[in-house]
C-alpha cells in the first residue's frame, strides 16, 4: 500500500543567483512541513548531503543550499512530513489544449512502479497499460529508453576515446553498423580518467557542491531526459510530428525529484539555440511517477482496467541496455556492452551469457568493483599491443548518509590512486527504481513503535 505525498504548486525559476542556485533554477523543490514533522530524525539518516537541520524531537528543516534534491528524505519520512513541488496543475491545461502537442518523456523505472499507485504489487510491469493510459490522457510518447540508447552511444564512445588518448593514440578506428569510423581522440588526453557517469542529476549537483575538482572527470553527456527534450523539439517537431516547435510541450515523467531541478538548469535550452529562440526550454515540466498517477486520477482513467497493449513507433523503440538504466549498475552494464561490441567485434545476443555482466550490478552492495576482460578484434590488438583489454570499473550504489559510500572512492580518485577507468554513481540506493519520485510505501505500525521508542530515549 502506498501513502499520499503532499505537494505544492510549481514556482518560477529564480530571477537572480541565490546561494548555491543560479538564475532560472528552482530553489526548494523538496521541503519539510514543520506542522507535520515530529522530529523523528529519520530524514537526517538517509540524507547524502548532510542537508537536514534539527535534533531529535525538534522540527527539522532542509538547508536548501546543501540539498541535492534526491528526495530520499521524502520517500523515507515515516510521518509524510516532506513535501514536493508538483507540475500537475501546469500539465493538465496543456493536455486540454488541442493546439498543443504534449510529449511525455517516460523513464524506464516508471513502468515498474506506476501500477503500485493503483493497488498492484510492487514491481508490477505495466508498460502496455502505461502507454495506453498516456495516449488516453492526450500525451504523445517519447520513451526515455530511446534517449538512453543515445546516451550510451555517446558516453561509451567518450569512454573509449579517453582510454585510447591516455594510451597515447591520436586516432581510434571504431566499427559500427558495418562501417569504419575514425575518432580523433587527441583532445581527450586532457580529459582525466576515471570517467564518471553524468545521468544522475543529484550526483552532478553533489559534485558541483562538494567535489568541484571532479567536474572534469564527469562524462560530458547530457542525461537521457535532456537528450530527449532537445531531440523532441528539433527532429521530433520538424520531421516526426511536423508541428511548430512552439506547439510542443515536453514533460519528463521521472522516478526522481532531482530531475525537476535538472530540467530548469539554465544551460538546457539546446532546442532554443537551434531555433534561435533561447526562451524555448528542452524540457518544460517534470512529473514524478506519483504525479503522473494523479494526472490519471484527475482524468478518470481507470489504470488497472486498461489492456497491456504495446504498439511502438517513432521514439518508442529501444534496446534492453536502455531499460537497465533504471537500476544501479545498469548504466555501467550498458556501457560495457557497448564497449564489448565495439572492441571485440562480436554482435550482441539476447541469449548469450557473455553479454550478461553480473559483476557490475549494484543490487544491495553499496560499492561494487569489477574487472571486465574484453577480447580485442585483430585491429585493436595492434593498437593496444595485447589480445584483451581489462576494464576496471566501480559502481556506487547510493551515495550513503553524508557521502559514506562515495567518499572512499572519490578521495582515491583525487589522490591520483584510483585503479578504475569508469565509475557509475547513483545517489539513491538501488538507483532510479528507488528514486524520490516513486510511490511511497506506507509506514508500518512496527516502524511507528520504533520511532516512539527512539523519541522516548532522547
Automatic annotation (TrEMBL):
InterPro entries: 4Fe4S_Fe-S-bd, 4Fe4S_Fe_S_CS, Cytosolic_Fe-S_CAF, Fe_hydrogenase, Fe_hydrogenase_lsu_C. GO terms for molecular function: iron-sulfur cluster binding; metal ion binding. PROSITE patterns: 4FE4S_FER_1, 4FE4S_FER_2. Keywords: Iron, Iron-sulfur, Metal-binding. Residues 28-57, 58-87 form the 4Fe-4S ferredoxin-type domain. Pfam families: Fe_hyd_lg_C, Fer4_10. The keyword Transmembrane does not apply. SUPFAM superfamilies: 4Fe-4S ferredoxins, Fe-only hydrogenase. This is Iron hydrogenase.
Amino acid at each position: 500500500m502506498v501513502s499520499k505525498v503532499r505537494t505544492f504548486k510549481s514556482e518560477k525559476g529564480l530571477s537572480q543567483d541565490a546561494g548555491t542556485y543560479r538564475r532560472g533554477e528552482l530553489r526548494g523543490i523538496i521541503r519539510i512541513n514543520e506542522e507535520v514533522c515530529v522530529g523523528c530524525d529519520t530524514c537526517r539518516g538517509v540524507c547524502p548531503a548532510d542537508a537536514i537541520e534539527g535534533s531529535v524531537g525538534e522540527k527539522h528543516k532542509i538547508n536548501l543550499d546543501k540539498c541535492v534534491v534526491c528526495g530520499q528524505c521524502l520517500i523515507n519520512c515515516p510521518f509524510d512530513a516532506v513535501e514536493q513541488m508538483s507540475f500537475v496543475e501546469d500539465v493538465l491545461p496543456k493536455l486540454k489544449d488541442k493546439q498543443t502537442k504534449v510529449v511525455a518523456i517516460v523513464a524506464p523505472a516508471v513502468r515498474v512502479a506506476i501500477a503500485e499507485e493503483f493497488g498492484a504489487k510492487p514491481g508490477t510491469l505495466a508498460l502496455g497499460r502505461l502507454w495506453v493510459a498516456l495516449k488516453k490522457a492526450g500525451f504523445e510518447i517519447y520513451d526515455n529508453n530511446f534517449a538512453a540508447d543515445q546516451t550510451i552511444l555517446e558516453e561509451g564512445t567518450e569512454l573509449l576515446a579517453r582510454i585510447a588518448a591516455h594510451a597515447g593514440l591520436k586516432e581510434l578506428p571504431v566499427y559500427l553498423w558495418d562501417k569504419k569510423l575514425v575518432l580523433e581522440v587527441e583532445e581527450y588526453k586532457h580529459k582525466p580518467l576515471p570517467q564518471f557517469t553524468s545521468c544522475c542529476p543529484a550526483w552532478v549537483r553533489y559534485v558541483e557542491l562538494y567535489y568541484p575538482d571532479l567536474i572534469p572527470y564527469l562524462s560530458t553527456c547530457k542525461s537521457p531526459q535532456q537528450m530527449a527534450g532537445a531531440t523532441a523539439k528539433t527532429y521530433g517537431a520538424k520531421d516526426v510530428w511536423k508541428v511548430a516547435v512552439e506547439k510542443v510541450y515536453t514533460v519528463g515523467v521521472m522516478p526522481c525529484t532531482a530531475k525537476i531541478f535538472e530540467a530548469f538548469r539554465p544551460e538546457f535550452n539546446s532546442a532554443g539555440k537551434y531555433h534561435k529562440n533561447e526562451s524555448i526550454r528542452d524540457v518544460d515540466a517534470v512529473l514524478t511517477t506519483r504525479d503522473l498517477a494523479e494526472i490519471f486520477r484527475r482524468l478518470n482513467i481507470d489504470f488497472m482496467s486498461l489492456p497491456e497493449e504495446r504498439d511502438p513507433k517513432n521514439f518508442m523503440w529501444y534496446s534492453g541496455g536502455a531499460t537497465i538504466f533504471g537500476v544501479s549498475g545498469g548504466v555501467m552494464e550498458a556501457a560495457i556492452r557497448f564497449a564489448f561490441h565495439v572492441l571485440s567485434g562480436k554482435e550482441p545476443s539476447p541469449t548469450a551469457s557473455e553479454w550478461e555482466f553480473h559483476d557490475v550490478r549494484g543490487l544491495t552492495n553499496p560499492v561494487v568493483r569489477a574487472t571486465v576482460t574484453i577480447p580485442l578484434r585483430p585491429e585493436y590488438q595492434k593498437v593496444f599491443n595485447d589480445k584483451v583489454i581489462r576494464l576496471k570499473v566501480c559502481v556506487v550504489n547510493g551515495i550513503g548518509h553524508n557521502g559514506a559510500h562515495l567518499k572512499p572512492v572519490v578521495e582515491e580518485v583525487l589522490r591520483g590512486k584510483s585503479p578504475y577507468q569508469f565509475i557509475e554513481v547513483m545517489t539513491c540506493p538501488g538507483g532510479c527504481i528507488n528514486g524520490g519520485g516513486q510511490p511511497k510505501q506506507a509506514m508500518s505500525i512496527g516502524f511507528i513503535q520504533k520511532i516512539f521508542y527512539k523519541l522516548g530515549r532522547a
